[in-house]
Write a structure and sequence with these properties.
Blueprint lengths: L4 E6 L4 H12 L3 E6 L3 H13 L4 E5 L5 H14 L2 E6 L15 H29 L18
Parallel strand pairs: 1-2, 1-4, 2-3
This protein binds NADP nicotinamide-adenine-dinucleotide phosphate.
Length: about 150
C-alpha cells in the first residue's frame, strides 16, 4: 500500500500560510501545520478536519531557534509522517525604517526568514526526494531542489 504523504507548511496560523493550508486541504493534501504557540493554529486544524477529508498535524515551534527546527524534523520522523511538499512560509516582515528597529529584531528576522528555511529544507531534503513531486526546468537535472524564501 502506498504511504500517505503530507505537505509541511510553516507559519500556517495566519496570512498566506493559512490561505495556503486551506488551498492544499481543498486539493486533498494531508497537512503538517507549524507556527509559534497560538490557538489559531488549532482552530484552523479543527476547521480543516471538519470540512476536508484530510489528516492534519500541528506543531508549535519557534523556528528562530535552530534546535527547534531539528526537533520539528525529529518529531515528524518519529510520528512516521512522510513529507512530500515543503512550503517555507513562516517569516517576519516589517515596514519600519531600518534605524527604528533594534539589532535583536534583525537577528530574529534573519533566523526566521533565512536560517530556518535553510535548515528545514536541508533536514527534509531526503524525504522530499523520496516522496516528491520534484520541480525542475527543462534546462536542469531532475531531482534538483529550489529554495524559495
Ligand atoms: N504580506 C506581504 O505583503 C509579504 C510580502 C513579501 C513577503 N512576505 C512573506 O510571506 C510570508 C507570509 O507573509 P504573511 O503576510 O502571511 O505573514 P504573517 O501574517 O505575519 O504570518 C507569518 C506567519 O509566520 C509565523 N511565524 C513568525 N515568526 C515565527 C517563528 N519564529 N516561528 C514559527 N513561526 C513563525 C507566524 O506565526 P504566529 O502567527 O504564531 O506568530 C505566522 O503564522 C512571510 O515569510 C513574509 O515575510 C509577505
Amino acid at each position: 500500500m502506498k504511504q500517505e504523504t503530507f505537505t509541511l507548511i510553516t507559519g500556517a496560523s495566519t496570512g498566506f500560510g493559512r490561505s495556503l493550508a486551506l488551498e492544499c486541504a481543498r486539493r486533498g493534501q494531508n497537512l503538517v501545520l507549524v507556527s509559534l504557540p497560538c490557538k489559531e493554529l488549532f482552530f484552523l486544524a479543527g476547521f480543516i478536519r471538519k470540512n476536508y477529508a484530510v489528516t492534519v498535524f500541528c506543531f508549535e515551534k519557534d523556528l528562530s531557534v535552530e534546535k527547534n527546527c531539528i526537533e520539528l524534523h525529529e518529531q515528524i520522523k518519529r510520528t512516521g509522517i512522510a513529507i512530500n511538499i515543503l512550503i517555507n512560509n513562516a517569516g517576519i516582515g516589517g515596514t519600519d525604517y531600518f534605524e527604528e528597529k533594534e539589532l535583536s529584531f534583525y537577528r530574529r528576522q534573519l533566523q526566521v526568514n533565512v536560517m530556518a528555511p535553510t535548515f528545514i529544507t536541508y533536514l527534509f531534503l531526503d524525504d522530499l526526494k523520496k516522496n516528491g513531486p520534484f520541480f525542475y526546468s527543462e534546462h536542469e537535472q531532475p531531482n534538483r531542489f529550489f529554495l524559495f524564501t
